Amino acid sequence: MAFGTWVVKLLALGGLAAGVASAAPPPPVAKDWPFDVTELKAPDGSITAKFVSIGATLTELWVKDKDGKARDVVLGYDDPSKLYSDPDHPVFNAIVGRYANRMKNGTFSIPISRDPKPGAPNVFHVPTNDHDGQVTLHGGIYGWDRRNWTIVAKSPTSVTYKHVDAGDEGFPGTVTAYATHTVSNGGILKTSIRATATEQTPIMLTQHTYFNLDAFEDGTDTILDHYLQIDGSKVIELDSNALPTSKFIDVGETPFDFRKGQTIGGRWDNTVDLCGQGCQGYDNAWVYDKTKSKKSDTSLWSDKSGIRVDISTDQPSVQVYTSFWMNSIRKKAHGGPEKRYGRCSAVAIEQQGYVAAINTPEWGIDQIYSPKRPFEWSTTYKFSSMH
Q1: Are 83 and 94 a contacting pair, CB within 8 Å?
Q2: Fewest 10 Å CB contacts: which of 142, 160, 225, 288?
Q3: Computed from CA positions of residues 313, 318, 322, 325, in that sequence, does the dihedral angle turn out positive or negative?
Q4: Does an H or E element contain 158, and which?
Q5: Under a CB-based contact definition with an 8 Å cutoff, are residues 188 and 382 in contact?
Q6: Are the CB atoms for 135 and 102 separated by under 8 Å?
Q7: 305 with 218: CB under 8 angstroms?
Q8: What PANTHER family does this protein's entry cite (predicted)?
């Protein structure tokens, strides 16, 4: 039986409560159907966003192009249940946690140390799910993107989801998180997250949004002609498992230099294995310079659609991933389902902390949170049209 069918049959029988992930994810809680769509609209009609409870996930984002036509500029599924049932889905536009990006060997210590030994005092191990068991990616086998969040507040322009992580995947303590999505006039989408822990634990969250500002119109299937600008003069150096070496790369005179707007594909021939995984393109983390005169931390725009997004965040870094491993059925709005999203079909722009800082004590970055120290994350996406 297909996994998605199995889930639907369980729900039809009355549902089961969520539990700790093991070989299979816990079924969603039937009383809060996790695939119902919540639609938010700005009063001026500039932006419409849709969300579902699985992962507090953004499923559609409609903004206006240079001709005033609305386009859905994020990837995803027409059937939101695939966010849960498809084991290969690429984390479409969800809130990712409890620890986003990568962790070496799924192992960390409190206080942090390099290469802690499993079984030693104050050393924790969570399931690995990437690079042949050498890496934990995005929180483990079933991280927050596959968990059912609960709506606790809603209005025509805002929705707040709650998730309680009671030691899922083996992390210490219980973390309670609230994610609020808000749309407002002028083409603005803002997401804010606050998470509190019952005991010391690592927390690093992100919103894993895949953008294609052309929405697969105008005969385009990739984002290689999109322009990208990043207010960052250094990139985290990676090893062959895409884990940080603890060193940084100066972006000057390299394919990483997006301090001035450049097309993503402009130096494509020079991007082979930049991310330490044998792929072509980008899957790297830039460290923001955070200059006072900046207007945004990251900007993305397309001359074809005329759509531009300026992104501002309170996070110190941004992961940019040009969807090398993408191979999912497209939405109808993007020409599907007979077509598929392929390589370079979108760019994921993920605001976050430093990659695997809990395994890199040399940096002196504290990603351990506690009852006296809540985690906070906020990002604003401002969309505009270029005429």
Answers
A1: yes
A2: 225
A3: negative
A4: strand 158-166
A5: yes
A6: yes
A7: yes
A8: 1-EPIMERASE, PUTATIVE (AFU_ORTHOLOGUE AFUA_3G13240)-RELATED, ALDOSE-1-EPIMERASE
Distance of CA 141 to the CA centre of its chain: 16
Confirm if 204 and 245 have CB atoms less than 8 A apart.
Answer: no
Q: Indicate the Cα dihedral angle 286, 287, 289, 290, nearest 10°.
A: 100
Say how many C-beta atoms besides its own lie within 10 A of residue 278's C-beta: 9
Task: At 6, give phi and psi (nearest 5°).
Answer: -60, -45
- Please name the residue ranges forming H helices in 70-150: 82-85
Pairwise CA distance, residues 273 & 278, whole Å: 5
Handedness of CA 174, 190, 34, 89 (dihedral sign): negative
How many of the other CB atoms lie within 10 Å of CB of 87?
A: 12
Residue 266, C-beta contacts closer than 8 angstroms, at least 6 positions apart: none
d(Cα 45, Cα 278) in Å, to the nearest integer? Answer: 43
CA 326 to chain centroid, in Å, comes to: 14
Q: How far apart are CA 68 and CA 46, in angstroms?
A: 9
Q: Which helix (H) or strand (E) holds 8?
A: helix 3-12
Q: Please give the structure tokens belonging to residue 246.
A: 């603890």
Single-letter amino acid code for the residue at 221: D
Residue count of the chain, please give it: 387
- Which residues partner with 181 through β-bridges? 159, 191
List the single range of 4-13, 184-193, 275-284, 306-315 with lowest mean pLDDT. 4-13
The CA distance from 157 to 178, in Å, is 17
- 247: burial class by Cβ within 10 Å (0-12, 13-18, 19+)? exposed
- Residue owning tokens 């969520």: 18
Both tokens of 251, joined, read 């972006």
Domains within the chain, CATH numbers bracketed: 32-210+364-385 (2.70.98.10), 217-359 (2.70.98.10)
pTM over 0.85: yes
Please, is 223 exposed, middle or buried when counting C-beta atoms within 10 Å of its C-beta (0-12, 13-18, 19+)? buried
When pLDDT is averaged across residues 4-26 and rounded to a whole number, the result is: 36
User: Does residue 315 carry a pLDDT above 60?
Assistant: yes
